[in-house]
Design goal:
Elements: H1 3-23, E1 26-28, H2 32-38, H3 46-60, E2 69-72, E3 86-87, E4 90-91, H4 94-108, E5 115-117, H5 118-128, H6 134-137, H7 148-159
Parallel strand pairs: 1-2
Antiparallel strand pairs: 2-5, 3-4
The protein binds iron/sulfur cluster.
Length: 162
């Protein structure tokens, strides 16, 4: 294979990955953008964690993942689906989830029905959520005190998501 053909094949593969990334949008409720940023392979059950890993590590953090389309929803989303705390169409701690969603939607300037690529979401988080803000935005979340999400936010500010 000539160098030119190799470059073309590479460009084709990248275009294919981008097209696939945009094909079926991931559905996120507003507070799950920051949760996805901070995800380190822990969750509420094995099924929950495997599903979240497939979304976050298998799509958002995979090569070309910045192009992944995300649809903002105001209800159960693709991360909630296998959660052991789900109670039908709601969460067993729905009032807390509503508070988290409202705080994160306001902070990110996102509303149900919006579509945004993961790379754009990272830029938006960096522009609008400062290190230290999660103590307020995520008040009541049991993962907050572990500091993993704040650490991820600090890394995003330090590296610009690269
Ligand atoms: S502290 Fe909780 S709500 Fe906030 S980003 Fe982390 S997991 Fe999500």
């Amino acid at each position: 294979m000539s160098g030119g053909a190799g470059v073309e094949a590479e460009a084709g593969a990248e275009a294919g990955a981008e097209a696939a990334a945009q094909a079926d949008a991931v559905r996120f409720r507003p507070h799950h953008f920051l949760c996805a940023l901070g995800f380190v392979g822990k969750g509420y059950s094995d099924r929950f964690t495997a599903n979240m890993a497939a979304i976050v590590e298998g799509r958002l953090r995979a090569p070309g993942g910045a192009a992944t389309a995300i649809e903002v929803v105001g209800r159960l989303d693709d991360i909630c689906a296998p959660c052991p705390r789900r109670a039908g169409a709601l969460c067993s701690v729905q009032a807390k989830i509503d508070r988290l969603d409202a705080a994160h939607a306001a902070a990110l300037g996102l509303a149900p029905g919006d579509r945004i690529r993961w790379g754009e979401a990272l830029a938006r988080i960096r522009a609008r959520v400062r290190p230290g803000d999660l103590a307020r935005l995520c008040a009541g979340c049991e993962w907050l005190e572990l500091g993993l999400c704040e650490a991820a936010l600090a890394r995003l500010h330090a590296t610009g998501g690269r």
